[in-house]
Amino acid sequence: MKIVIQRVSLASVTVDQKKVADINKGLLILLGIVADDTQQDIDFLVRKIVNLRIFNDEKGVMNTSLLDIDGDVIVVSQFTLQASTKKGNRPSYIKAAKPEVAIPLYKSFVGSLEKEMGKKVQTGIFGADMKVALLNDGPVTIIIDSKNKE
User: How does pLDDT run along the chain (150 residues), one tens digit per residue?
Assistant: First the structure.
């Protein structure tokens, strides 16, 4: 499981010209799932997400977490995060989980994140053509791969 976390001042997701998610201060998380991902991958990422100290404290130092600021989250499924670009110029998405595997893991990820945060997490629509808008704050963008815990 791979995520791209973007600290945002605001973010939204639109599908068919209808806004389906909209937040102010918090995180926009892009989520890529592979077939062998498990609840252990979810648990690892959720703990990281809620506890990462990437928000500024009163001194302007990145020293507070999503929980500390009571921030909001949008999670967007994005199979292209699992692209392989080793051969040629056309990415291969063979590693990305098929919907029958990815959808339950996606839902579990969102549910686990909601439980840790104690609040609702907004989402895009799995498999839809989404328009994602954001104002990256910092900019702060962090990539975490649950299979590569460095």
Answer: 999 999 999 999 999 999 999 999 999 999 999 999 999 999 999 999 999 999 999 999 999 999 999 999 999 999 999 998 998 899 999 899 999 999 999 999 999 999 999 999 999 999 999 999 999 999 999 999 999 876
Q: pTM score, two decimals?
A: 0.94
Active site residue 79: yes
- Domain edges within the chain: 2-145
Q: Which of 39, 40, 80, 141 is catalytic?
A: 80
**Looking at 78, 82, 122, 123, which residue is catalytic?**
78
Q: Which of 79, 82, 109, 122 is catalytic?
A: 79
Residue of 94, 115, 132 lying closest to 4 (CA atoms): 132
From 126, 144, 138, 124, select the one nearest 47 (Cα to Cα): 144
CATH level 2 (architecture), domain 2-145:
3-Layer(bba) Sandwich (3.50)
